[in-house]
Design goal:
The protein is α/β, with parallel strands linked by helices. It has a seven-stranded mixed sheet. Strands 2-1-11-10 form a four-stranded mixed sheet. β1 and β2 form a beta hairpin. α2 crosses α3. It is globular.
């Protein structure tokens, strides 16, 4: 069990952080600004709901647990954040994929499944999950390699409450990326500004971005995440950036 820490204490684990997110269920916790004007807002309850469903899929479909490596081949995107949170919630290691697909993890989660078709067979075969990025997608738009799981439909069939998830090992590797490895004991930073509404640039390295989001949530804050293209547009248009800050009540 990982109960919420005492009042005034910052969460130190993924489960504590998610419990804090859920403590104010109707409050926006993750707002996404994608390309072409796409906006998606997830309250604490909705964020937890998505994570719970995805945890159940990972555990029940792929036996995910401490020691499992989930290769994440997704851009900075709200769906990628959900998959990282779910993998950590069941104790798995999130391995950030490079530009060139290469076998590594036990489960590969990707928005470009055709590029990973070879991991489904042969030595070191992995399970493959195809993620459709558009907010309203009900299935992956395109052909899937035989045996691949279409996340858009599969996730929705799982329960809204985590049925079972193993305890994480504080010493185990939680994040493995270009910047090195981070253990579960060090995964949740304690340097967030309490209660802040933070604008996060999706062009940042994914490993850095994911930990920045954890720091915000562990400080009982909320995130406005802009895709790399949208962040570049905002940087080039100060008036639009000012409007966004005002509309979303961004404080940091």
């Amino acid at each position: 069990m990982n109960p919420l820490p005492a009042a005034g204490r910052t969460p130190t684990t993924i489960s504590q952080t998610m419990d804090l997110v859920l403590s104010d269920p109707g409050r926006p916790r993750l707002t996404w600004y994608g390309d072409a004007g796409e906006r998606v807002e997830l309250s604490g309850a909705v964020l937890q709901n998505w994570v719970s469903k995805t945890v159940n899929l990972l555990v029940e479909e792929f036996d995910a647990a401490p020691g499992t490596v989930v290769t994440l081949d997704l851009p900075a995107h709200w769906r990628g954040v959900l998959w990282a949170l779910a993998a950590w919630r069941c104790g798995a290691t999130v391995e950030l994929a490079g530009d060139t697909p290469a076998p590594g993890g036990d489960v590969v989660v990707t928005s470009r499944p055709a590029a990973w078709a070879d991991v489904l067979s042969g030595p070191g075969a992995a399970d493959l999950v195809a993620v459709a990025l558009p907010a309203l997608a009900r299935s992956f738009d395109g052909d899937l390699p035989p045996g691949a799981v279409d996340a858009a439909g599969a996730v929705m069939t799982y329960g809204d409450v985590i049925g079972w998830a193993p305890e994480t090992d504080p010493a185990a590797v939680a994040l493995d990326g270009p910047g090195g490895t981070v253990a579960f004991a060090d995964l949740v930073p304690a340097d967030g500004t309490p209660g802040a509404r933070v604008l996060v640039d999706g062009a940042r390295p994914l490993g850095v971005l994911l930990r920045e989001l954890l720091a915000v949530w562990a400080a009982d804050g909320s995130v406005v995440l802009a895709s790399a293209a949208t962040a570049a547009e905002l940087a080039a248009d100060p008036a639009r950036l000012d409007r966004l800050r005002e509309t979303e009540r961004i404080t940091a």
